[in-house]
Design a protein that fits this description.
This is Signal recognition particle protein. The protein has 445 residues and is an alpha/beta fold. The protein has an 8-stranded mixed beta sheet with strand order 3-2-4-1-5-6-7-8, sandwiched between helices. Strand 2, helix 7 and strand 3 form a beta-alpha-beta unit. The structure holds guanosine-5'-diphosphate (GDP). Guanosine-5'-diphosphate binds next to helix 6.
Length: 445
């Protein structure tokens, strides 16, 4: 899907960032270089890439990162914020005229998806309580009027079109008459479909520009096919010079486009992306949210969790605390439980271990690790009194029976747990003295 490769590449880049301590200038440069390459390979326009990476670099070297608890997460946040910025920042909604009808003109190359968009937009507006009229001003493409009538009827919206036989009419006139018709019949929105050519040409621009002048639209939406990659910027600029537009619609975001168009156009033209089209059906359409798109690209939830997990499970400070405890022989069942819970908190721990060099052995141990074991351990330990958790010597027969009942386990289960804890505590002491480390219940690493 669109952005798939870019997302993977960026995620890969962040994996290499250290989660602890300061980032050196060369850490940052390495990361920025990888981001730059990933963006260029995704067809993002060079000026946009340069600007983007310069901002990320500057911020990543600044205080907000060096003072952060977790520099890697901070860098990901910065990349996210800068992505939102190049996608236009705030969401921009469609603007309606104070005095209806609101006139919306569509412009763009042939095949960009204008006619389809007219239907999508009409359907969307009907849902929001509007009464749109579609106007067929694309008199160039032989089947365009008919196609608009088809999407119009699918959307349940009327279409204003020149009389049949009179088809080689004047698109500017049709557009004007369409708006007049909307006023007469009290439609509150008019959507004008216009002609596109396969490439940018002067005549096309002039026609579109004349339609604009004649109808004075509240919105001119430039529809661009996300699949056209590097050409997106030149096309967008040509339309900006020739017709100018108030907003952008990205179409075909469902395809295999590499995403460059989406990431370049708002930034290069300074015009917001208002809608995204994601399929041929009339419902494959959504208002564009820069922040949501950025998180989709970055898989932000996933990346941040991954970094967090890596930190949690291998938290040096926590490890130091445990070591201190061991040294002073204070390792308790509470600590034991906490360790197990950390392991579970790490959730997708195998995925995470992919990030660590030389974790193969540990990974094998984890393959044999049973999640249910943690649940059982939790139940038993939580049925103990705080005093019992501090000192297992208190656990006589009747106490063990009470704990078994309280946790829904057998006395044998309780005995086994206490035994395993005592073994673990012993092993941990070995670790504290520099012996072979072990995760409780899992044998030596
Ligand atoms: P126009 O020449 O700009 O009016 O473009 P059309 O609306 O006729 O669309 C050209 C082709 O692209 C048609 O086959 C549409 O079904 C298809 N299309 C339009 N929007 C999308 C989209 O978001 N995703 C996909 N996959 N196809 C689309």
């Amino acid at each position: 899907a669109t952005f798939g490769t870019l997302s993977d590449r960026l995620a890969e880049t962040f994996k290499h960032l250290r989660t602890k301590g300061k980032l050196s200038a060369s850490d940052v440069d390495g990361t920025v270089r990888e981001i730059r390459r990933a963006l260029l390979d995704a067809d993002v326009a060079l000026p946009v890439v340069k600007d983007f990476t310069a901002k990320v670099r500057e911020r990543a070297l600044g205080d907000e990162v060096n003072q952060a608890l977790n520099p890697a997460q901070q860098v990901v946040q910065i990349v996210n914020e800068e992505l939102v910025a190049i996608l236009g920042g705030q969401q921009r909604r469609l603007q309606f005229a104070k005095n209806p009808p609101t006139v919306i003109m569509l412009a763009g190359l042939q095949g960009a998806g204008k006619t389809t968009l007219a239907g999508k937009l009409a359907k969307h507006l009907v849902k929001e309580g509007h009464t749109p009229l579609l106007v067929a001003s694309d008199l160039q493409r032989p089947n365009a009027v008919n196609q608009l009538q088809v999407v119009g009827s699918q959307a349940g919206v009327p279409v204003y079109a020149p009389e049949p036989g009179n088809g080689v009419g004047d698109p500017v006139r049709v557009a004007k008459d369409g708006v007049a018709q909307a006023e007469r019949s009290q439609h509150d929105v008019v959507i004008i479909d216009t002609a596109g050519r396969l490439g940018v040409d002067a005549e096309l621009m002039k026609q579109a520009s004349n339609i604009r002048k004649a109808t004075n639209p509240d919105e001119v939406l430039f529809v661009i096919d996300a699949m056209i990659g590097q050409d997106a910027v030149a096309t967008a600029k040509a339309f900006q010079d020739g017709v100018d537009f108030t907003g952008v619609v990205l179409s075909k975001l469902d395809g295999d486009a590499r995403g460059g168009a989406a990431l370049s156009v708002a930034s290069v033209t300074g015009r917001p992306i208002i809608f995204a089209s994601t399929g041929e059906g009339l419902d494959d359409f959504e208002p564009f949210h820069p922040d949501r798109m950025a998180s989709r690209i970055l898989d932000l939830g996933d990346i941040l969790t991954l970094i967090e997990q890596a930190q949690q499970a291998f938290d040096e400070e926590e490890a130091m605390k445990v070591a201190e405890k061991l040294a002073s022989e204070q390792f308790t069942l509470d600590d034991f439980l906490k360790q197990m819970q950390q392991l579970r908190g790490a959730g997708n721990i195998k995925k995470m271990l992919g990030m660590l060099p030389g974790a193969g052995g540990l990974r094998q141990q984890l393959d044999q690790f049973d999640e249910r074991e943690i649940v059982r351990t939790e139940a038993i330990i939580q049925s103990m009194t705080p005093a019992e958790r501090q000192n297992t010597k208190l656990l006589n027969g009747s106490r063990r029976l009470r704990i078994a009942k309280g946790s829904g386990m057998t006395v044998t289960d309780v005995n086994q747990l206490v035994q395993r804890f005592e073994q673990a505590a012993k092993m941990m002491k070995t670790v504290a003295r520099g012996g072979t480390p072990q995760i409780p219940g899992m044998g030596p690493i």
